[in-house]
Amino acid sequence: MNHEKSAAMYEEATQYIPGGVNSPVRAFKSVGLTPVFVERSEGSRVYDLDGNAYLDYICSWGPLMFGHSPEWLTAGIEDLVKKGTSYGLPTAIEVEVAKLIVKAYPGLEKVRMVNSGTEATMSALRVARAYTGRNKILKFEGCYHGHSDALLVKSGSGLMTYGVPTSPGVPDEVVRDTLTSTYNDIKQLEAMFQTHGDELAAVIVETVAGNMGVISSTLEFLQTMRDLCTKYGTVLIFDEVISGFRVHYNSSPGYFGIEPDMACFGKIIGAGMPVGAYGGKEEIMALVSPVGPVYQAGTLSGNPLAMYMGKKNLERLRDYPEVYSTLEEKVGGFAKGLRTALKELELDYTVNQVGSLVTLFFAKGPIENYNDVMRADIETFNRYFASLLKQGILIPPTQYEAMFFSVAHGDEDMAYTLQACIRALKEAHGL
Ligand SMILES: *Cc1c(COP(=O)(O)O)cnc(C)c1O
Fold first, then answer.
1. Is 17 exposed, middle or buried, given 0-12, 13-18 or 19+ CB atoms closer than 10 A?
2. What's the pTM value of the predicted model, to 2 decimals?
């Protein structure tokens, strides 16, 4: 596989962009390689500048439930561009998308569009703090909620990969009110509420963590969280930027049967366009400007092109609910195949799967929280990654992420991928 053009472009990119990339994980630095520059994509595949094809399991880190640019999704966007790209005035399609989200998400009554997941969580926290008149928030180690100051504490993939627990440039005072607790640890959660419950504005959680590799909350953990938040008057925020519309059409409330007070979205609701959203119960969202006093705004928020893509993606998921069971079955088969191979190779590693998300942890299971993840053998993962890349398979270039499967990954793709993973495991161990 030739990477000449990507290498040259990377060289040029580093002259103008920090590290040559606009989001750190894209640099492939964590796996000791340099990035592939994408030229185009189709279905389950991306093609780089040198013309190499890859089966893509990054899938833009989550938005592409149906793979790259399916015809039905992009059809009509040219006409839309001709009409106009942005107005700074309301359009009807924003209402349609908001309605889709509100109808799909149990307990959600109002939703506000923003431009990224980071904005969504940042804004939700502001509203929750205003609503409760409290400052402290609780997050869980290994969960990532975007890069706003208050949430850059013991975050997930990008930061974990580079081993920075918190970032320079974030004042101590800003994170002083951010408490952290261990994921899936009910005793610690209860103790945290016993000490700080009356001061907690919000608890924010990835119900299915994707940013330390895939780890699902246990039902008991989420139920305890729900009960404690209700008891103490704390706002429970589900960060559904990955899990929203992915684990279930009704997102986490559909999957776990538990409703938060607020929810944050991104990724899938924009189908690859820059979109985020946050919403919640009427009483809480009534605080948001211009109805209430909490300021939050966006020049490009609810952008018509982004809304158009989001609307089509959500409608498709709503109208073909079998997408979820089909993916579950297909990806479940892959996970099972991987576990069988691990057994045969006598490798004591762990495969976590939730729906269309899979992480092969290079560590003995069970993997239930950040500390478990930290036991992973990164050197071996890096060799595994490199071998997969050579075989034309792109997985996230970090142990602390999920493979994103899509509807576009066909049976042949899946079979090839499983074989490639087995070969990569052998290569990584010199077998
Ligand atoms: C990706 C992600 C975010 C941040 O979204 P951006 O659009 O990258 O700002 C927040 N929370 C979770 C759970 C995410 O996976």
1. exposed
2. 0.97
